[in-house]
Structures are given as structure tokens and as C-alpha cells.
Amino acid sequence: MFESITEKFVPQNKGSAQSYRVKIGVFQGWVSVLVNGLLFILKLVIGIMVGAVSVIADAIHTLSDVISSSVVIWGFKQSDKPADVEHPYGHGRAEYIATLIIAVLLVVAGIEFIQEAIHRIQNPKPVSSEWWMIIVLGATILLKEITARYAEFLSSKIASGTLHADAWHHRTDAISSLLVVLALIAGNYGYPAVDGWAGLGVALFLIFTGYEIAKDAVDDLIGKPPASEEVDAIRQIVVSVEGVLGAHDIVVHSYGHDKFVSVHIEIDADKTTAEAHDISERVEARLTGTLGIEPTIHVDPVNPGNPLVKQVQDFLDKNWSGDERITDIHDIRVVETQNHHAILFGINVKMGMSQRDIVACSQAMEGDLKSEFQGFDVNIKVSPIYRF
Length: 388
Hints:
The chain is α/β, with parallel strands linked by helices. The protein has eleven helices and six strands.
């Protein structure tokens, strides 16, 4: 059902993926504005009629949904702006700002209603409501949950954290409305204090949800590591290009829908410079065409045909490939000159390791290799934790 509705109002034509993404986001924003605007009026009228703080708090919560949905529209329109001199990587992170604003609105609304809810708990007032009011509020719960599920559907369709946050904003409204309905029913049976407790529950739920959404938005703005599935997909695409012997030190920078990626690829050192350049360009084209990302490729020459390199590889595979501290071993090279014999390679270590543990691990590897390959210096380069 959701797919057919979306296709009817936002058909997927031959335009760019980013253009379609923005249309989806703006469409969901306007759907939310219309639905929440209607529900705000209904809840506010009923809340004033029965004098229930929980109902009025729920109405204000719904009004915050109208504001947050307007922020969603703004965020998607901002993110669609092209790169300029002041913002050379585009405006994609405007979505994260929109998400953060939504979270702040949730927290502020929750804080404002805690005081009133506590006052109502300490000084309960009789709350009497007609059953038709309870039925109407019950219907709003169903409508909000449908709206939340539709926003979540669109969120997964275009991979948008902003729409995911908006979906949860709708869902918190549905849950708070459920608490309100229970409070009105309790009030009809002589338990007016339940209204205050329900209002407090709604307020605390608003604050908790806002905090969780804000945390995700701040992580995105500061920069968080890519999902392991994303890194694996990039690596599989890279190594599928003929001539690439391995891929490592993958770095992903996210700017909303725009992603900039750098990858180190291993190429046979016997290849000419022109051949290595051609391979790197094919890797770039494959990544751009498949994932729509902007890649930067670094070429590392290796000597897979060198018997000593094979011996080092076999030794590391046998003695260190199972070590949980090490996630990757790459760029194995052997230098043999008249005055210098050295084994060089790089490693990636597990996230969260202390500098002390990293040094201890690399020193243990170095000691093992020097014992096995006497007369060789060992140079181990540990990649930064943001490289995979």
C-alpha cells in the first residue's frame, strides 16, 4: 500500500537519485504537517473542554510534530543545494541539523510539561470526558501510528536518518496519546490523579526520545565510523576489478547523502605506471557507478611473486591471522639491498584498543618475525582506527 501511494504522488522518473530523494523527503514532510495540524486542533479542543493537562500536553506534542515536519522539509531542500565556495562538499549535513532541531524540540516540550504534570499530581482536579472524545483520541492513535510507519517506510527507501527521527516523533505522539486516553478513562471512574501521572509519563518519554535522536544526530555531525556492511561492499567492489590484489585502509566521509571514500589498493609492482593508473581509474569508475560515491585511490605496489614475500605471508597467516586484536594484514613487502634487509607491512587493529596494547601487539609481531627471518629489520605500520 505504501509503495503504491508513494508511486502515485512521487513517481520515480529519469531524474537523479538525489532529486528523487529530496522529493520523497519533502512529500513526507507535507504529509506530516497536514496530519499533525488536524490532530493538534482536535486534541487542543478536547483538552480545553475537559480541562485535562495530559490532553493539552499531548496537543502541544502534536504541534511540535508540525514544527519538526517543517524542519524536515527545510532540511531536505537545504541538502539539495549544490556545492559552493563556502561549502565545497555540498549541503548534505543539513539533514543532520534538521534531525537535531527535531530532537531539541522534543526535549524542550518534555521539560515544559514536567512541572505542570507534577503540580496536577499534587493537586488533582476532577476530569470528566464524554466517551466520544475518548473514541476520537483513540482514532488519532491509529492515524499517528500509520503516519509513523509510512515515514519509516520512506526512511528505509531513501536511507534517511531525518525521516527515521520524524517517524519516531510520530510514534511518541501515538504512545503519549494512548497514555492520555487511559488517563481520561481513569478520570471518568474517579481517579483524577492519573491525568497528572500520564502527563508526566508523556513528558519523560518526550525527553528520552529527544535525547536518543539528538545523540544520533550529533554522532553524524561529528563523524562516526561507517557500517561494516558498507565497508565490506566497498572492498568487494574494489577487489573485483582485474589487477587489484587487495584493498585496505578504507575511509568513508559522509556528508548526508554524499559520501567521499579513499581506498588503498594493492597492485603488482611489476606493472608499469600507466597500467597501475589505468587500474586505479577503473576502480574509481566501478565505485562511482555502483555506489554513487566520490572515491580517491592510493596505489600500493606489492611483489606477490617474490618467494620471500610468500614465506612472510604464510608465517603471518599461520601465527597471527587468528589474533583477535588484528583485523587486517596488508602491503607485505621485502627490501633486499647490499646494506639493508627489511620486511615491511601494515596492519589494522580492533577498534577501542589502547595505544599501549597496540604497541605491545606490534612489538610481539616484530619479535616473532625477527626470530623467523634473522638478519631482517621489521617495519610495521599501524593504520589509524578510522581506516578499515
